[in-house]
Amino acid sequence: MIDVLLYALLAGLGVALVTGPLGAFIVWRRMAYFGDTLAHSSLLGVALALLMSIHPTLSVVIVCLVLALILVVLQQQQNLASDTLLGILSHTSLAIGLVAISLMPSVKVDLLSLLFGDLLTVTAQDIVIIYSIGTASILLMVLLWRPLLSITIHEELARVEGIPVTAVRSAFMLIIALEIAIAMKVVGILLITSLLVIPAATARRFARTPEQMALLASLLGCIAVICGLSSSWFLDTPAGPSIVLCAGGLFLLSLIKKQ
Amino acid sequence: MKAPLIELSAIGHAFQGNRVLSDVSLTIETGQIITLIGPNGAGKTTLVKIVLSLLKPDTGTVTRAPDLRVGYMPQKLHIDPTLPLTLRRFLSLAEPSLQLCLNALAEVGIEKLIDMPLQSLSGGEMQRALLARAILRKPNLLVLDEPVQGVDVIGQEGLYRLIGQLRDRLDCGVLMVSHDLHLVMSATDEVICLNQHVCCHGHPDQVSTNPAFIELFGSRTAPYTHHHDHSHDPADNSRNGHSGGGHHD
After folding, report:
1. Could you tell me the strand order of the sheet in which B18-28 lies?
2. B222 partner at 20 to 30 Å CA-CA among A20, A211, A251, B22?
3. Class of the CATH domain delimited by A2-253
4. CB within 8 Å: A28 and B80
């Protein structure tokens, strides 16, 4: 029994470590809704994985990247406001996923665990995937830290200063897609954004540099995972929502501090 | 005579069929301050983007000096309040050496603010911070998009003086975009009055009395009311494309 808890804890911490710095960028670049849209599309990724018998992590990453590409193209061509466009794609892709899964009667899918996470069924293989993808994401972010910060501040200034903006932005999309693929198991498709946004927003109140904010967000994410998992273990609450609730509680606590 | 830093000739550009620039030519030499003025929608920003290589013009050619290094000062910086960023960190993104950052800040006169969050700077301080970042790249061409925006009149004079000093010390060319007319006229070598095409250009004294200029801005705003004794090259006052004397705010 104890290895279930250990696996769950390891998986949760692995995901929380990456969501810190990534979430900080999501908050700075005002991309919360964008992240949500990509996360919603991952249900379609799961459906495709079942259909073609490939690993869901792979298909989720691919679907997220394709959706990100569609978004970028539509944003350039359409006259719709960005948030309207995101609203359309976000819910359409979620609906496609739900319909696609319902059309596959041969496979039994636990929809609730996909939508809200199923941390207590994490396997050793999941841990390996989470930590290898997580390590790759963090390495990529360390490598891209300065250019990413530059384009977050002013994209054209960054371009004039010689930063390959398109390449950096694409790499950032890739990191988001990778993180969604590994966070799905922990908090589920519908709650992934909260794990990105809430710890970063909490960390903002204590940080004086971008780096402090990113590291603190990771730490707060880890605390939320530990508290949420404890609650799940002792009070039998669902793990994913409990983790998000703890993150929200930490944010409320942070409001006590005067700015 | 040194080759020009950048030479644009017969530039034309349109966005989705909307013609923004036609037949615009422009040469910037070392040590020269050129100011682009014109009403909203005149294509100033588009022209600046072409100079910065951010945009490829539909027609015309751009020739850059092989050693061209551009320092760019954007019009405005929108930094999300959630991003904790001090002036020091902001400059370090362009130049890791603290000493060089301090030198640049001293040059623009705000070295005391190095540990302030960027969001707490006043309008004038922010413009100086952006200028410091631009000169950190040791540019030979400074491109300044509305450098005195959000700065009070006294601060504007100070900024224009500073830009003149920087031009002398860095020995660079300067391309400025400006909205206001009076102050910028005294701080510039050449004015280019743009309204999708070059309405008129030349020394500020000449331009301010040019009929094309007066039509665009009204004589009230023209800073110099003397020198009505010279004629104008008719080629400069082609009236095509004027949007009925679009007024400038």
Report:
1. B18-28, B6-15, B59-64
2. B22
3. mainly alpha
4. yes
Q: What is the CA radius of gyration of chain B?
A: 19
Residue A156 has its nearest CB partner, among B74, B82, B86, at B74
DSSP, res B223:
S
Pick from A30, A156, A207: CB nearest B80: A30
Please report, for chain A, the start and end positions of each structural domain, with discontinuous segments joined by +.
Answer: 2-253
Antiparallel, parallel or unpaired: β B6-15 and B59-64: antiparallel
Instruction: Report the residue of B16, B85, B133 to disrupt the A interface, i.e. the one with the largest count of A CBs within 10 Å.
Output: B85
* pTM for the structure as a whole: 0.86
Query: Strands B141-145 and B70-73: what pairing?
Result: parallel
User: Interhelix angle for B153-170 vs B98-108, to 10°?
Assistant: 130
CB contact under 8 A, A28 and B133: no
pLDDT digits (tens, 9 = 90+) for A174-233: 999 999 999 988 889 999 999 999 999 999 999 999 999 999 999 999 999 999 999 999
Domain B1-69+141-249, second-level architecture:
3-Layer(aba) Sandwich (3.40)
